[in-house]
């Protein structure tokens, strides 16, 4: 998971620092687990732009990732570690004993040839998916369910994890990297380990073109717009823009916008640190 830095032979390489991809073991994905992925360019079903600064980019195929991990008691062998253009983490192609294959989120340190297992009877080893009730306290986990049988919802991107801090009755207490401490039912499943590609946050694309290849268009600030385009626009010269707000007028940058009546509030023991 090393970061590769370039000598500034060209202007685009001056600040370029990208993944070395040394952990990747396959050049092409497994065809039977691919689906077409249509690019929306930030438009909805009526063609209205609902998300700005998106469009272009390279064509992608979606990799069907198994977030449920519900084939209990069956051991699977890791065949390849692959790049996924749709997420920051790496994915692993695994093969079960009956010959069927599936993709899973690859944890950091998972290697080709290792075996992974699902279910309550699985040991709490790297890459195994089991209920939080069966995982030792203090273990680092990822791909965590919030409701039993829902499939992995939390800690799925590169380098993320949560620590199982304690268990109280029917709930497990998880400590997240954001500083938030929350309760999750012990029947929910999680995968042991940290998500792969831990150096993803150290990458620097080096040029605008690489960002365009990812499907992101140039972003312009609200303070340089006119008053009818943005609440922070207008004014003579370089005006500060007033209180930070979104284009729809919602407060941003520190102002709490979470619904105080959200049903999940009862599961949050300690809010994330500012």
Notes on the structure:
This protein has 2 domains: 199 residues, OB fold (Dihydrolipoamide Acetyltransferase, E2P) (Beta Barrel), CATH 2.40.50.140; 41 residues, Irregular (Ribosomal protein L2, domain 3). Helices cover 2% and strands 23% of the residues. The chain has 1 helix and 15 strands; from the N terminus they run ββββββββββββββαβ. The strands form 4 sheets. The protein has a 7-stranded antiparallel β-sheet, with no helix packed on it. The chain has a 4-stranded antiparallel β-sheet with strand order 7-6-5-8, with no helix packed on it. Strand 11 and strand 12 form a beta hairpin. The two termini are 29 Å apart. The mean pLDDT is 95.
Give a quick rundown of the structure.
This protein has one helix at 208-213, and strands spanning 3-5, 17-19, 34-36, 61-63, 75-82, 91-96, 101-105, 115-117, 129-131, 140-142, 162-168, 171-175, 181-185, 189-192, 268-270.
CATH class of the largest domain: Mainly Beta
Number of helices: 1
Quickly give the structural class. mainly beta
Label the CATH architecture of the largest domain. Answer: Beta Barrel
Report the order of strands and helices.
EEEEEEEEEEEEEEHE
User: Largest beta sheet: what is the strand line-up?
Assistant: 9-14-10-11-12-13-15
User: What is the count of β-strands?
Assistant: 15
CATH topology of the largest domain: OB fold (Dihydrolipoamide Acetyltransferase, E2P)
Cα(first) to Cα(last) distance is 29 Å
Helical content band:
under 10%
Principal-axes geometry comes out as globular
Tell me the major beta sheet: 7 strands, antiparallel
Q: CATH homologous superfamily of the largest domain - what is it?
A: Nucleic acid-binding proteins
Low-confidence stretches: none
Q: How many domains would you count in the coordinates?
A: 2
Query: Residue-averaged pLDDT, rounded?
Result: 95
Radius of gyration: 22 Å
Q: What percentage of the residues does DSSP assign to strands (E)?
A: 15-25%
């Amino acid at each position: 998971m090393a970061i590769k830095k370039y000598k500034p032979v060209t202007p685009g390489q001056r600040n370029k620092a990208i993944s070395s991809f040394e952990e990747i073991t396959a050049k092409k994905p497994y065809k039977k687990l691919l689906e077409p992925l249509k690019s929306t360019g930030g438009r909805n079903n009526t063609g209205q732009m609902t998300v700005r600064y998106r469009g272009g980019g390279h064509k992608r195929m979606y990799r069907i990732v198994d977030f449920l991990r519900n084939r209990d008691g069956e051991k699977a062998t890791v065949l390849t570690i692959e790049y996924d253009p749709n997420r920051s983490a790496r994915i692993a192609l695994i093969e079960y004993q009956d010959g069927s294959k599936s993709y899973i989120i690859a944890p950091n340190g998972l290697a080709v040839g290792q075996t992974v297992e699902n279910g309550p009877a699985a040991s709490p080893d790297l890459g195994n998916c089991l209920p939080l009730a069966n995982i030792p306290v203090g273990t680092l986990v990822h791909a965590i369910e919030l409701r039993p049988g829902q499939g992995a919802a939390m800690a799925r991107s590169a380098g993320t994890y949560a620590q199982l801090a304690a268990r109280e009755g029917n709930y497990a207490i998880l400590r997240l990297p954001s500083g938030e401490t929350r309760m999750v039912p012990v029947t929910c499943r999680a995968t042991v380990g940290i998500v792969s590609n831990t150096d993803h946050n150290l990458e620097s694309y080096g040029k605008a073109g690489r960002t365009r290849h990812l499907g992101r268009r140039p972003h312009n600030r609200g303070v340089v717009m006119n008053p009818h385009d943005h609440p922070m626009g207008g004014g003579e010269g370089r005006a500060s823009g007033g209180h930070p707000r979104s284009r729809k007028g919602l407060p941003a940058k520190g102002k709490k916008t979470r619904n105080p009546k959200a049903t999940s509030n009862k599961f949050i023991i300690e809010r994330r640190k500012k």
